[in-house]
Write a structure and sequence with these properties.
Blueprint: E1 4-15, E2 18-29, E3 33-37, H1 44-51, E4 59-64, E5 67-68, H2 74-80, E6 82-85, H3 97-104, H4 111-124, H5 126-130, H6 141-153, E7 159-163, H7 171-186, E8 190-195, H8 198-204, E9 207-212, E10 215-221, H9 222-225, H10 229-235
Parallel strand pairs: 3-8, 3-9, 6-7, 7-8
Antiparallel strand pairs: 1-2, 1-4, 4-5, 9-10
Helix pairs in contact: 3-6
């Protein structure tokens, strides 16, 4: 039986008088990829930020392998093994590729493990190894996204949070990014991915949740959700 890595119950998130997330439930089984889908403003990014400890939950609970992390600080959550690659390819643009990756390993104490993590990242992203001495601001958009994901992987995450990894990228680059996420899954890393590209995401996911205006709209196995063309077009955005 698969253990539950992450369990969210009745999560509510408020920004002043605005309730962005209105009591959602969500489960992420260990070793699986779970997609969190929906249109802009559905509450997806707010949910990830709350899991990471960046945006406090107004109500509800977030549990990670049985430990309540709802009120924990972001750094402590990272040290437990929840690592986020945020939307917008946020890297240190005045540092080299290698220096950026090293910043991602700040919670890893073993030099041997850091070395192994570098090798893993360069295996996933050979282009980053080719450009390891280049400053990040010289990279293309796709390479910046690769760097953002690789930097998160340097922390050896038990749960990898990906926020819109395909946003603004060319179709061929999107294909490469999703193929790499599939490889990350195959090696056993648990992934929660927020995306508007529903079709590509459901192809690599095991399970999907659809949010609408801050609420659970529906959920189910990805293989079932992907068959419903009307659903994909109406609630999940692009099908191409």
């Amino acid at each position: 039986m698969t253990d539950t890595a992450l369990e969210i119950r009745n999560l509510k998130i408020r920004y002043g008088a605005i309730e962005a997330v209105k009591g959602i439930d969500l489960d992420v089984p260990e070793g699986k990829v779970v997609a969190l889908l929906g249109a802009n403003g559905a509450g997806k990014t707010s949910t990830l930020r709350s899991i990471s400890g960046l945006t406090p939950a107004a109500e509800g609970s977030i549990t990670f392998f049985g430990q309540d992390i709802t009120k924990l600080e972001a750094e402590k959550i990272t040290r437990l093994g929840i690592v986020q690659s945020p939307e917008g390819r946020q890297v240190f643009r005045d540092l080299t590729v290698e220096e950026n990756l090293r910043t991602g390993a700040f919670t890893v104490r073993s030099r041997a493990q850091v070395k192994a993590n570098f090798e893993r990242c360069y295996r996933y992203f050979p282009r980053l190894e080719e450009r390891r001495t280049q400053l990040a601001y010289t990279l293309s958009g796709g390479e910046l996204q690769m760097l953002a994901i690789a930097r998160a992987l340097m922390a050896n995450p038990k749960l990898l949070l990906l926020d819109e990894p395909s946003l603004g990228l060319a179709p061929m680059v999107v294909k490469d990014i999703f193929a790499i996420i599939g490889e990350i899954k195959a090696e056993g890393t648990t992934v929660l991915i927020v995306e508007q590209n529903a079709l590509q995401t459901l192809k690599i996911a095991d399970y999907g949740y659809v949010l609408a205006t801050g609420r659970n709209h529906l959920h189910g196995p990805a293989a079932e959700l992907i068959k419903d063309n009307t659903l994909v077009e109406a609630y999940l955005g692009t099908t191409k």
